[in-house]
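Why does residue order matter? Because the sequence determines the fold. Keep that principle in mind as you read this record.
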Amino acid sequence: MTAPAPAPARARRRRRTAGYAAAAALLLLALLAVRVLVGTPMVPVDLALRALSGENVPGISFIVMDHRLPVAVVAVLAGTAFGLSGTTFQTLLRNPLASPDVIGVTVGASAGAVIAMAFFQADGRALFWFALLGGLGTAALLLVVSGAGRPGAAGAVDNRFVLVGIALAAALHALISYLLTRLSLHSAGDAMHWMIGSLSSSTWDRAAVLAAALLVLIPALALLVVRLRILQLGDDTATSLGLSVPRTRVALILVAVALSALTVAVTGPLSFVAFLAGPLARMIAGRPSFPLAAVIGAVIVLVADIAGQNLFGTTELPAGVITGALGAPFLLWMLTRTPSSGSGR
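Structure:
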């Protein structure tokens, strides 16, 4: 365990992290403007401002208020949720490779949605609930099999959780592949499109669902982060300070799962966003930073959506294709450096 940094060093580090977060937030605002203005057709700034002020501008009001702005808002909310979820898992499990993508949570949510399509012909709100239940069910199975809810050596529990998650993700992928064979050609196509991860069906209703979830889950996570800092000192030290280690670990996992599963239920599994946001924030700030990871997650999703809509001619690619293309080489790079970086602390 490394000694705590002196108070002046901690203050400088906090100011530096706040500066990076502010710069990332400004970049996010710029990307929001790009997402609303750029596309086919292009929207002039003055007409966009008139539409945003509530004026009915023929054609433009629909493009801005009913099409592009809901997509941009859902992208920001989804990226924020994925960034917070991934950083929670990576910090709690002391492993930069641990994210909802890798340990099976997002696959579980996808399996829930495909089950709903295959057996109940569900869509809309029913699909949302099945995806959420799939993610939560996967988390419950992870907790039981890995023993994360029982006292024990932190490293052993954390390693078991990651290994069990990888195995469970493989099994769920096989289940999804089988279920796709049970669907009609049209339904299988819809399921595959959803599983790639797309913002094309974003609406104000879906944005409201995500916003309401974040209004509940972010304060809950903020309260738990204080306990997470204590938990990082080790189980014995945390217990001696009066912290219930199993209960805290389970609470953090449930909040992280809810963040990712709710988002997958709305957007589909946007690959690697949760995985990328935390390590990038840590590289920039020099330590885990939840606010910076949240903003970086939102930036990644917006950049992916803008790129998918505008960089490939008449072909529009779902955001999940772009995030997968960004995340795969980053994962390989992380795998090559993990043995020399220890536990990722």
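The mean pLDDT is 84.
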